[in-house]
Specification:
Radius of gyration: 11 Å
Helix content: under 10%
Number of strands: 7
Largest sheet: 5 strands, mixed, barrel
CATH superfamily: Nucleic acid-binding proteins
Oligomer: single chain
Number of domains: 1
CATH topology: OB fold (Dihydrolipoamide Acetyltransferase, E2P)
Distance between the termini: 35 Å
CATH architecture: Beta Barrel
CATH class: Mainly Beta
Order of helices and strands: EEEEEEE
Strand content: over 45%
Amino acid sequence: MPDLTIGARGTLTIATRGKDGPGEVQVDGGEAFIAYSTEPIPRGTTVVIYDTHGGRRVDVEPLTTTGG
């Protein structure tokens, strides 16, 4: 069964610190997860979940939009 969390969007309620530690993301559905990222991401940034590790731990990256 696929993980429905992957691809979900959310907002960081606690900034991530890259390799120095996680933050927290609240997904659009209201659930909160421990958020890890490769680089620091500031609080308030809209992010997308691209991987999960169980125990409510997820990997996030800033949501980017491309326009045309």
